[in-house]
Amino acid sequence: MTRKIAVVVTARPSYARIKSALRAIVEHPDLELQLIVAASALLDKYGSIVKYVEADGFEITAKVYIVLEGETLLTSAKSTGLGIMELATIFDNLRPDVVVTVADRYETLATAVAASYMNIPVAHVQGGEVTGSIDEKVRHAVTKLSNLHFASTERAAERIIKMGEDPSSVYVTGCPSVDLAAEVLKKHALDFDPFERYGGVGAEFDYKDGYLVVMQHPVTTEMGDGLEQIQETLHAVEAVEVPTFWFWPNVDAGSDGISRGLRIFREQGRDKNIHFFKNMVPEDFLRLIYNSRGIVGNSSVAIRESSFMGIPAVNIGNRQAGRERGKNVTDVPYEKQAIQDAILCILDNGHYEPDHIYGGGAAGTQIAELLATAKLGIRKQLSY
Question: Of 244-248, 280-284, 309-313, 348-352, which gets the smallest average pLDDT?
Fold first, then answer.
């Protein structure tokens, strides 16, 4: 019997994290994909993924608008509640056999809660990892709400089991986003003009002799510090005078402070070597990173995909604290001089040898096969 698999994609990075699995689910003879696109993944302000999803040939089964304006702690909490309500209705209409939720966002928690209370098995991708911010709480809460666990690393799987999950429900699949990185390595040339294809705003420059990529998000548990934090990074990047492609922050609480810092910087006319984007097709984004001289900020792409591709990375602050990382990563605080010095070091270093911490590029296929064959159930009992 064909299993109906509802996959909920709620933000622009979530699509890259699950795209290879979506493809494998569509291709699997015993699975039917129900693709639900929700939250900031629908909003142009944060880089809507809809046109990219449709261009990749996926049919969107449902769209769910749940993000309340404001980017505050209050709106994040309320958006979580709204997500539970709206997703419950969608699940009631679609009647999936399994709901797949990705990573550690508040929408991920809403997905897991709604499905659990409707007696639908939950499969969680990227559980068991350790990081900073509220993501840590959310990720482990989703683990306890989930019935199948697709861990990216051996250590993550061990943590899931230590939390009392049945070892027979825990699988080390690797990270689906690494699947895309593996594909990009086979054809890594930057064969498009970022300005022509994606527009954006800011300076247009000659990037052929090297450039940086910057992506810095708010840290929810450091609410109110975003403006000061982004100013330190802006001043450091400005000082090294290297052409830079900068990506807009995500929807998390505190995003408005970071966005305000970027706008002020631009209004002061100091973005002579910086161009800003909201989003890109995942493969184009990875090609942009691969051909860069390094990535700067606090995004997990610097830890996951960049370690696999050997791209030098400057990781700023505590957002990725505790996450397994390769030798490509340099950790620094939110201090202009420390960030500047680290950037200068990676500019001199060049690419690293790849680290396969998060898998070798076959996670999507493994996840699809497990969704088709794993024993499904909703009852849970601590295994210790």
Answer: 348-352
- 373's CB contacts (< 8 A; 6+ apart) are none
Which string of b and e fits 82-99 if b means at least 16 CB within 10 Å? bbbebbbebbeeeebbbb
Distance CA 48, CA 278 (A): 9
> Can you give 177-243 as a three-state secondary structure string?
HHHHHHHHHHCCCCCCCHHHHHCCEECCCCCCCCCEEEECCCCHHHCCCHHHHHHHHHHHHHHHCCC
pTM as predicted: 0.94
Domain range enclosing 23: 3-174+361-373
Domain total in the chain: 2
CA proximity to 11, closest of 250, 180, 213: 250
Same domain for 143 and 192, yes or no, is no
Looking at the DSSP bridge assignments, the partners of residue 201 are 276
How far is 89 from 84, CA to CA, in rounded Å?
A: 9
Q: Would you say residue 384 has pLDDT above 80? A: no
